[in-house]
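Narrative of accomplishments. A recurring question from our advisory board has been how the design workflow behaves on a single, concrete structure rather than in aggregate. To address it, we present the structure tokens for one chain from the evaluation set, followed by the sequence designed for it. No filtering or post-editing was applied between the two.
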């Protein structure tokens, strides 16, 4: 049991209130959801939202975490290509939503908005919690 004054557990991914609202809408329309970010050029570097399981993940992908969004029936997995993760492993990602058309395969495209990532470097305590010494050896 943690004390009430303890900081929240370290995570690699979070969601803004605006993105959470869109995820609730998409969950009502499409059911369980997932994200994948490939690190490709153009829209490939944006997070893509799919019905859960529609995008096949494998050994070339890393599960960064799950987004527990109130009003969404199931946690939303956030996957990233392993090669991109190696470059971004020191970064915390926040899924946000802005006006404009994004990738045509992502579920939000018909809504006239697109998901995007806002990022910051993980602080030393977060890095130790998420990547403990010896974990990469």
């Amino acid at each position: 049991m943690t004390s009430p004054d303890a900081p929240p557990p370290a995570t690699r991914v979070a969601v803004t209130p605006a993105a959470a609202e869109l995820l609730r809408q998409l969950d009502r329309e499409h059911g369980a959801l997932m994200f994948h970010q490939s690190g490709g050029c153009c829209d490939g570097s944006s997070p893509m939202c799919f019905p859960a399981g529609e995008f096949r993940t494998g050994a070339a992908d890393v599960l960064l975490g799950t987004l527990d969004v109130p009003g969404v029936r199931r946690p939303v997995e956030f996957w990233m290509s392993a090669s991109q993760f190696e470059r971004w492993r020191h970064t915390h990602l926040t899924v946000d939503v802005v006006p404009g058309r994004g990738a045509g395969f992502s579920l939000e495209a018909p809504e006239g908005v697109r998901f995007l990532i806002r990022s910051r470097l993980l602080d030393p305590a977060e890095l130790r919690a998420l990547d403990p010494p010896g974990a990469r050896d």
